[in-house]
TrEMBL record, chain A:
The chain crosses the membrane at residues 6-22, 29-49, 61-84. It is found in: Cell inner membrane; Membrane. It is a multi-pass membrane protein. GO terms for biological process: ATP synthesis coupled electron transport. This is NADH-quinone oxidoreductase subunit K. It catalyses: a quinone + NADH + 5 H(+)(in) = a quinol + NAD(+) + 4 H(+)(out). It comes from Sulfurospirillum deleyianum (strain ATCC 51133 / DSM 6946 / 5175). It holds the Pfam family Oxidored_q2. Its EC number is 7.1.1.-.
Amino acid sequence: MITLTHYLILTGLLFAIGLVGVMRRTNLLMLFFSTEILLNAVNIGFVAVSKYYGDFTGQMFAFFIIAVAASEVAVGLGLLILWYKRNGSVDLNSLQMMKG
Amino acid sequence: MYETVAFYIFSILTLGMFGIVVMSKNALYAMSALAGGMIFISGFFFILDAEFLGVVQIVVYSGAIMALYAFGMMFFDTTRDVSEKMRSKKIAYTLSILSAILIVAILCIPLVSESIEASYPAIENVGNIQMVGLILFTKYLVPFELAAIMLLVAMISGIVLASKKMDEHLAIEEDECEMLKEGK
């Protein structure tokens, strides 16, 4: 029988994969992919809690998270295309202009 | 029984797909694996009786967001391998493992306390989609409208940002053509 703990552990694992991606990648496009993984992992957790406590608030939150993710991608990709046109690279190290 | 089997199959597939996204050096492989992982996640939503979210997950994530990434990738050089220069591997992996343990601990805290009551409990004989509509358009009407405005702003900003220098690039190409003609 699958309990809430199973889902929460899965959420934690997926979130860990996303965090590894965020820390490992230096390509900005790949960083966006990792962010999507983080948001999806949290969504699973919300929906699982919503099911096992019989409360619909979790599903509403997951719904709004999807909306936020969609707008984040639209704005982020626009900025990324602009940066690529200017610099010819989407590498995170190309953003270091101050040479600190 | 079926729920257990489905849960484990979807877990393994999702973890594998997202592992490919994080570890792959090719941007196209990473994007395809991400799209697959999104669809498998919608499987979890269907197991959890959240049909509406499952459909939204497929339509929005695998449809809209992945298409957006695919269009965005036309602007980048995706055939080249992604160069990764890691300065401190140990710090990154320790930090991620520590934060993962922290997240599991945070998520397990509600299980210890048994005094949680549902503020919007499910009504008998009302389907999931009907229930989502009932709650979304009563208790969460203002956040819903704000989300609509946010999506509109994001759409306009996406168009403005991506199309900013498109005419300039065309102008450069025309100049180059003229220069080539003069050279001949």
